[in-house]
Amino acid sequence: MAQFGVFSLLSVPDVQNEVALVQGELEINVAAEASGFDSVWLAEHSGSRYGLIASPQVMAAAIAARTSRIRIGTAVSVLPLHHPLRLANDFAMIDVLSSGRLDYGIGRGYSADEYASYGLSVTENRGRFDEALAIIKQAWTQESFSYDGEYYTIPQVQAVPKVIQRPHPPLYIAAGSESTVEWAGANLVRMLSSSGSPANIRKKWDTFRAAGLAAGHSAEAVEDALAQSWVVKHIYVADDDATAVAEAGPPFIWYFNLLANRRMFDGPNNTPPLEWWQEHGACYFGSPETVAASLRDWHEASGVTNTLCWMNTGGMPTDRVLNSVRLFGEQVIPRFRVQS
């Protein structure tokens, strides 16, 4: 069955609107539950106006307190930037507060500036990531534990509270590079991917399959992990196509003027117009009928049915995004549920 989530990066291009947009993003995530979405996902960034969720666990706790059904994910929690015991404790609390609704997406991060702001070198990201993940999993699954590594040393400690989901909340990883996809397959960790082209997505999924089978996992387990993996799509719904493009286009282009973000979605080094992104399937802006048709084509071409809907690209007015979320929930999601 196709699943749909709301992805939050929380871009705030205008500092004068910062408070309203931060509070509005919380409102958008809460509204996703009433609109029929399956999950909400929170990105982590710091030191940049294109991503203000420096602490996804704070936002997740606020969402948990105001919802009862929708799952709450991180896309992603950047493990090397924080002490892993702190992360283990914080997100265990989220799992408890939400009655077991946490999906824990993890990643190494890619911004040298963000690493530098924490007094760290991005060249250490893989080693710190590996140790942090080992510590978090021990904290969630063992009554007590200790750890002695290159980057972290923890004396015998009891990590509390314990997570509700057993053995621990589902793990996801930001799957950008081929090596990360191979790691995900070998460790049977579900993927979170930027959209790219259908061919690139199919290549990622095939790489995951090969790595998973080579590591000794059953074909059934590998396919189950892939069936629960997600791909991000920029989506905005209005009453008609022209309105959707007029409202979502300018903030979308503001966001994609940043080179790193273009590369994440298979974009060129120059700054192409909105039409280029539409032609290459990076964004679906339109009426419910147009967006639903585009998603059906995407599902058929890529083989992936779980879509993270990035509704608020570039810091849009909250009322517009809420309307998009409502229209998607009322007029797009049901078209896919009927076919399930």
Brief rundown of the structure:
The chain has 340 residues and is α/β, with parallel strands linked by helices.
Give the SSE map.
Layout: E1 4-8, H1 18-34, E2 39-42, H2 56-66, E3 71-74, E4 77-78, H3 84-97, E5 102-107, H4 112-117, H5 125-141, E6 145-148, E7 153-157, E8 171-174, H6 178-187, E9 190-193, H7 198-214, H8 219-227, E10 230-237, H9 241-256, H10 259-264, H11 274-279, E11 283-286, H12 288-302, E12 307-310, H13 318-339
Parallel strand pairs: 1-2, 1-12, 2-3, 3-5, 4-5, 5-8, 8-9, 9-10, 10-11, 10-12
Antiparallel strand pairs: 6-7
Structure keywords:
alpha/beta; eight-stranded parallel β-barrel; two-stranded antiparallel sheet
The geometry reads as globular
Question: What is the percent of helical residues?
Answer: 40-55%
Using the CA coordinates, give the radius of gyration. 19 Å
Summed over residues and divided by their number, the pLDDT gives a mean of 93
N- and C-termini, Cα separation: 5 Å
Tally of alpha and pi helices: 13
Order of helices and strands: EHEHEEHEHHEEEHEHHEHHHEHEH
Largest sheet: 8 strands, parallel, barrel
Beta-strand segment tally: 12
- Class by SSE composition: alpha/beta
Poorly predicted segments: none
Strand order of the largest sheet: 1-2-3-5-8-9-10-12
Q: What fraction of the residues are assigned to beta strands by DSSP?
A: 15-25%
